[in-house]
Amino acid sequence: MPVPRLECIYGDKGCNYLYSKSVLLKPLPWTQKLGELRDSITAFTSYKFRIVIGNQYRTGTDSIGWHSDNESSMRYQPVIASVSLGGGRNIKKKHIGGTPTDFWLEHGSLLVMHPGCQSTHLHQVPKTNKVVSTRINLTFRPHTGGQR
């Protein structure tokens, strides 16, 4: 089944990322701008990141369903820093078994999911029938493998 958005990955050499037990992403080398953004987020949050996954949501039909980012390659209790660029989009987050809370992320927003969030909560970018502009989401993540 095709992924309902465009995606790419940049990061440290050898930091391959497998999700949903079937989608393997192999990182391209950090660009200067992505490296600078990673370093700024690290300075702001004190967390280190080894990969960034880019998702492009072209229209309201591009989406990602309820999930947690708990892949073993990110260690136990990973921190994920999410930067939104372009059009705003509704993000839903809920405690597992709980009621969703909506977050409107505009251009330049930084959402940090702290340790424990991936084991207690789910999140999604739902489809919408509203006309929305293209959104780029960059999720900076830790990784246990690879080399700098």
Describe the structure.
The chain has 148 residues and is mainly beta. The chain has one domain: Jelly Rolls (Sandwich), CATH 2.60.120. It has helices at residues 32-45, 117-120, and strands at residues 6-11, 17-19, 23-25, 51-57, 64-67, 80-86, 89-95, 101-105, 110-113, 121-125, 135-141. Strands 1-4-11-6-9 form a 5-stranded antiparallel beta sheet, covered by helices on one side.
CATH topology descriptor: Jelly Rolls
Major β-sheet, in short? 5 strands, antiparallel
Order of helix and strand elements from N to C terminus: EEEHEEEEEEHEE
Spell out the CATH superfamily: Alpha-ketoglutarate-dependent dioxygenase AlkB-like
Mean pLDDT, all residues: 92
Number of helices: 2
Reading off the top of the CATH hierarchy, the class is best stated as: Mainly Beta
Low-pLDDT sequence parts? none
Termini gap: 33 Å
Structural class: mainly beta
Number of strands: 11
Care to give the gist of this entry?
Helix content is 12%, strand content 39%.
List the helices and strands and how they pair.
Elements: E1 6-11, E2 17-19, E3 23-25, H1 32-45, E4 51-57, E5 64-67, E6 80-86, E7 89-95, E8 101-105, E9 110-113, H2 117-120, E10 121-125, E11 135-141
Antiparallel strand pairs: 1-4, 2-3, 4-11, 5-10, 6-9, 6-11, 7-8, 7-10
